[in-house]
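$ ./design --mode recover --in tokens.txt
reading tokens...
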């Protein structure tokens, strides 16, 4: 399978060579055949032993991507793919494998591996978001590795392969700015996502793309849970479904993530957090806005000042105030844009626990249901008791 490697070739100092570790007994659990065909990938090859090695990052051509990130408001200068590999690009999409083992960016104590539950969660959630019309990374495959790994208990290991318009994040730009590569990375991002724009235009396009996506989150009651700058893409796609969940009854203070101890990323804060993240992006672009630092700051401030109107306009487009509330069939009858079905928290949690214990039948039932959000599915029809419900990132 021949892939392009334009990101690594254009920006060699933004990546590190990385190869997936050998796996004791890899088994293909899920293959998104329609997506594979859309990308021009050979489905039969992907199902073969060589295809699995390719998906597991064992071709010797993969790279771990460098990035920084403000995590819950605190800057980590060097993060990067500590358990993932950019396999390459095809049909204008990145192929990216998570849980493949240690990379040059792995943190001390990390095994670089993925647990089955979180990999299945990301696949299901990304398919649900795709069906709900939200810009998102997509799940291409989930592979069990045959390896047992230690988390809160011993669980099966797995790798999830996803696609994305790119994996360039605000955190990528932060790393580039700190390592004197911002012009090269910004030029690549413009060519990849917003051809013909200047640097101010790039910033404005990202504002619009991200505002449109977060407005859709707000309409659906989707709570990302970890809106760090390294999880804010320049393409506007939703990325990283670790501790995410859907709000089932309207409350602006709702959050579920176990690592969001102060509720920084609660439902009602998501638009303002996006603005905060975009301000960090503007900081990286200051040298490109103008050679005069004072004029550059004026450009950043004047462009950033557009954010409130852009965000409010996106929320109005999604008619958030009209459709946010209990996600029920009755609500769907009142603004038909609201779904009948969302991935409810209790059923999803149950499916992932059963899958971890070796039974994926309920998971596959849910997976088919979330692909058809306008239809009534008994398996996802009623909210559960979410008192004290917590989600975990799975790393």
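writing sequence...
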């Amino acid at each position: 399978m021949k892939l392009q490697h334009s990101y690594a070739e254009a920006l060699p100092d933004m990546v590190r060579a990385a190869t997936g570790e050998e796996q004791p007994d890899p088994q293909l659990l899920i293959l998104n055949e329609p997506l594979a065909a859309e990308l021009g990938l050979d489905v039969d090859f992907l199902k073969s032993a060589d295809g699995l090695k390719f998906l597991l990052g064992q071709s010797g051509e993969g790279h771990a991507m460098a990035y920084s990130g403000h995590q819950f408001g605190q800057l980590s200068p060097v993060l990067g793919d500590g358990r993932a590999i950019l396999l390459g690009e095809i049909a204008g999409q990145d192929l990216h494998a998570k849980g493949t083992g240690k990379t040059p960016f792995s943190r001390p104590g990390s095994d670089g591996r993925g647990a089955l539950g979180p990999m299945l969660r990301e696949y299901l959630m990304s398919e649900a978001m795709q069906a709900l019309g939200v810009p998102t990374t997509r799940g291409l495959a989930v592979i069990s590795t045959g390896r047992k790994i230690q988390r809160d208990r011993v669980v099966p290991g797995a790798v999830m392969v996803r696609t994305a318009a790119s994996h360039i994040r605000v955190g990528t730009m932060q790393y580039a700015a700190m390592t004197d590569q911002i012009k090269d990375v910004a030029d690549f991002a413009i060519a990849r996502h917003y051809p013909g724009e200047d640097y101010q235009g790039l910033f404005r396009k990202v504002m619009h793309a991200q505002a449109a996506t977060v407005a859709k989150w707000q309409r659906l009651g989707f709570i990302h849970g970890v809106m760090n700058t390294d999880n804010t893409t320049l393409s506007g796609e939703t990325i990283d479904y670790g501790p995410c969940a859907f709000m089932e009854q309207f409350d602006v203070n709702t959050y579920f993530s176990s690592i969001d101890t102060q509720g920084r990323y609660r439902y009602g804060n998501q638009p303002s957090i996006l603005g905060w993240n975009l301000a960090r992006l503007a900081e990286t672009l200051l040298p490109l806005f103008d050679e005069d630092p004072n004029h550059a700051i004026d450009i950043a401030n004047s462009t950033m000042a557009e954010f409130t109107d852009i965000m409010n306009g996106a929320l109005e487009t999604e008619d958030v105030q009209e459709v946010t509330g209990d996600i029920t069939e009755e609500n769907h009858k009142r603004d038909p844009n609201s779904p009948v079905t969302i991935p409810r928290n209790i059923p999803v949690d149950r499916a992932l626990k059963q899958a971890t214990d070796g039974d994926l039948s309920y998971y596959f039932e849910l997976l088919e249901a979330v692909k058809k959000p306008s239809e009534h599915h008994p398996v996802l029809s009623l909210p559960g008791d979410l008192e004290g419900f917590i989600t975990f990132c799975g790393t």
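exit 0
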